[in-house]
What we know:
This protein is mostly helical and 198 residues long. It has a domain at 23-122: Orthogonal Bundle (Helix Hairpins), CATH 1.10.287.1060. 79% of the residues lie in helices and 0% in strands. It is built from 6 helices and no strands. Helix 3 (23-58) packs antiparallel against helix 4 (63-121).
Amino acid sequence: MSKISKFFKGGSAASKGRGGPSPQEALARLRETEEMLSKKQEYLETRIERELAVARQHGTKNKRAALQALKRKKRYEKQLNQIDGTLSTIEFQREALENSHTNTEVLKNMGYAAQAMKKVHENMDLNKIDDLMQDITEQQDVAQEISDAISSRATFGDEFDEDELMAELEELEQEELNKGMRDVRLPSVPSTSLPSRP
Length: 198
């Protein structure tokens, strides 16, 4: 068994008893590790700057000391590159864990909602719902018929032919007009002749 697999199978005693750490615990530890590595990055960056300054200071005067400073700078740069890679891996793992935790919570809540919906529907019978909907439709039709009957124009006295009534009305109007014409006095025609052209 490799050292890495032993490391991952070993785990802490607290984690073993509970079946592994919670997502919150794992996220907290990943964040702590990120902070520690970020501090180490800052430390290495300052050491690299110092070694570079030492190398410049000795320059051509003390080549051995300058070379030793440049070798230390290279080792620090190598460590810094490793930390950069490790930080990238940890960030990726933290984001994946956060997404997994979010997805788990979403699925859990969707499961609760599905159970609640099932509980609501367990007392409902589809046949009874169909019957109820038919009753509602019938009652709506009856209500519409009543509404139409109430709102339609009353047909009191509509049993007469409208054309006959219109003809009778025209006769009455004509009689009135004739009576009015009898009482009109027209002026008499003048007996004098009209002048010819001026």
